[in-house]
Every structure is written in structure tokens, then in C-alpha cells.
Amino acid sequence: MSEIAITRTQQPKAPPPDESLAFGDVFSDHMFQMNYEVGKGWHDPRIVPYGPFMLDPACCVLHYGQGIFDGLKAFRGQDGHIRLFRLGDHARRLNRSAHYLCIPELDPAMVEESIRALIEVDRNWVPRKAGTSMYIRPTVIATETFLGVHPSHSYLYYVIAGPVGAYYKEGMNPVRILASDQHVRAVKGGLGAAKTMANYAASLYGAEEAQKAGYTQVLWLDALEHKYLDEVGTMNIMVKIGDEVVTPPLGGAILAGITRDSVLTLLRGWGMKVSERAVSIDEVLDAAKAGRLEMWGTGTAAVISPVGELGFKGERHLINDGKTGALTQKLYDAIVGIQYGTEPDPHGWARLLGN
Ligand SMILES: *Cc1c(COP(=O)(O)O)cnc(C)c1O
Predict the structure, then answer these.
(1) How remote is the CA of residue 257 from the centroid of ligand 1, in Å?
(2) What is the rounded (10 degree) CA torsion for 279, 283, 289, 291?
């Protein structure tokens, strides 16, 4: 990749106090950008002051949603080091998402370098308080000015980042989820395996309905039979039934979560029985009734999100007495320990900034 040109802001802002941080509403002083045109390839990598950019109202992404993103975090440990969690895996996944959306290949090494360089420039924005982190959002949008439908001939890749607060301020909080046999998020053969805007648009209506019914998230079932678990909200779903941990297999409508992979790797390392197999809502409800169920979601934002209650067809089912399960808590602690550098990192998931 050619050298990244850096233009520093003339008006640096003061990062807000760590105590005030929420999620996704504060952004650091700079952003990374790079353009693509047919015949020219990806070119002009640069870090510039954060700010709005101009788009033609007819540009592709605004009409047909040809765009992708990823989401990862940098953590400042008590030792002062900044750690990027599974940077290489996020870069490779962005490239896989590009493939599904007919977006030209993004060299994962280039994606890694863009993120690393941006966090280096804005390192004073990585918060310090326990549980806080820097959320990083690499994004690609189709920019061709053209209302016909075909893959765009030009793209913008950009990266923005901002400090975010602790997801759990007072310990883990089990959520209530509603299994929907009405709405679906993604279908096999569609875009479910890509991190793309369209899947999020498709999730909004069902999520609103669940919230109106008093739930936090939707438990998405498969789109064909409305029978097998797919994902929860925008997280991967896992259950522990007896002594077996089960998560739906990849290869269809499911996004290959990197937290999902971290959890599966840890569990296998601990010698637990782990299955990537289809798991039906009936099997889960039976286990809940028998008191043999733990259930949690996995994703970068929350890491692990325990499920305390599951609604289905007008009935509410308590899971693990509505409390965070022991394994759920252990997984959370293990991953967070690696992210902040308080636990050994045998898989080399945390990459130190600056080396
Ligand atoms: C991003 C995402 C996840 C979680 O992936 P992580 O890499 O663990 O953050 C799960 N499901 C969907 C639909 C997603 O977009």
C-alpha cells in the first residue's frame, strides 16, 4: 500500500470524560479514507480531520444499499498499552463481506494498517476507565452516480472511531428476548453472512415489535421453517443445554461473529463439549422448562449478553431463574481479561498498538 498521507486537524477537540461515555455518539478527531475507481484500484490512502463528506444524491449506496462495515475495539490496559482485539480477523471479514456485495477486494493487510494508523493518530481518544474502549467502524460505500442497478464502479473506504462506555456498568444484566415466528432477519442464499446495511434495515421492524411487547431483542428463527435459532438482535446466539454448548452452524444466514469464534475456541480449550449444529426453539424451551438451560448472545459491543427470559407464542419462559449463568460469566471474564491484558493471551488475539 502506498504511504498514508496524514493531515492533522487544526481544531483538536477534548475527548469527553470517560464517565459520560455511551455508545456510538462521540467520534475522534480524525478519520481514514481511501478511494477506488475501476482501472485505478484502491488509491489515495489518507488520514484527515473527522467531518462530513459530500455525496452525490444519486450515488449507489443511498439507493441500493451497496455497502459494508465491520466493528472492532481497541482497549487501554492498566499497563497503559493499547490492544486491538483480533484486528486481522476483522480485516479479513470486511474483505469477505466485500465479496458478497460485489465490492472490489480490500487487502486485509491494508485494512489493518488503516485502522492501526488511525488509532495511532487518535491514541489520546482511547479512554482509560475500566470497561471503556475505542469502537472502530471500517466502512465501504458505493459512490458511483448512477441509478441503474449494477455493482458500482467507484467506492469509498473509510474508518471512523470513537470512545464508548462500559457496556455493563453494574454487573451483567440478563435481557429478555422474543422469538419471532413472524419476522426474519436474513435467509439462506441471501446476505446473512455479510456485515451489510441491508441486514440491519431488515431487522428494525421486528426489533420494534419486540420492544413494544416489552422485550429487549428479537431471537431470529430460520426464515424457512421458523423453527431453528439463527441469531439474537445483531449478535450470535449460544445455548448450554446440560453439559453441551450449542450454536447454530455458519454457512447460511448467520454472520461469522468473531466473539462467537473466541467463545468456541475458549470452550474447546477448556475441554467442553461444543456443537455447531441446528438447534430448534422446541429443544431450547424444553431445556428451559427442565432447568437445564443457559443462553447468551455474543458480539463485539457487549462481548457476552446473558438471556434471562425467552418469549414465544405469547408465553414467557424464565431461563436460569433470570440470572446470569456461571459459564456465561466465566466466558465474559475470560475474554475481557484478554482484551485489557490482565489475563494471558494464548491465542495472540490482542495486538499491541505500536509494535
Ligand atoms: C457484527 C455481528 C455479529 C457479531 O459479530 P462480532 O464479530 O462478534 O462482533 C453477529 N451478528 C450480526 C448480524 C452482526 O452484524
Answers:
(1) 5
(2) -50
Domain count, the chain: 2
pLDDT per residue, tens digit, the chain (355 aa), is 579 999 999 999 999 999 999 999 999 999 999 999 999 999 999 999 999 999 999 999 999 999 999 999 999 998 999 999 999 999 999 999 999 999 999 999 999 999 999 999 999 999 999 999 999 999 999 999 999 999 999 999 999 999 999 888 877 889 999 999 999 999 999 999 999 999 999 999 999 999 999 999 999 999 999 999 999 999 999 999 999 999 999 988 999 999 999 999 999 999 999 999 999 999 999 999 999 999 999 999 999 999 999 999 999 999 999 999 999 999 999 999 999 999 999 999 999 997 4
Q: Are residues 127 and 266 in the same domain?
A: no
Q: Is position 170 within any domain?
A: no
Q: Which ligand 1 atom sits nearest the alpha carbon of residue 192?
A: 13
Q: Which helix (H) or strand (E) segment is 207 a member of?
A: helix 197-212
The preferred substitution site among 84, 195, 305, 332 for testing ligand 1, maximizing ligand atoms within 8 Å of CB, is: 195
pTM above threshold 0.85 = yes
Residues 6+ apart with CB under 8 A from 45: 1, 2, 3, 4, 5, 32, 33, 34, 110, 114
Alpha carbon of 273 to ligand 1 centroid (Å): 23
Same domain, 193 and 307: yes
Q: How far apart are CA 17 and CA 19, in angstroms?
A: 5
Is residue 254 situated within a structural domain? yes
Please report, for the domain that includes residue 179, its CATH number: 3.20.10.10
70: cell is 465491520
Residue 70 lies in a domain: yes
Question: If we measure between CA atoms, which residue out of 176, 170, 193, 283 comes closest to residue 233?
Answer: 176
Which range marks the domain in which residue 299 is found? 175-340
Residue 352 belongs to some domain of the structure: no
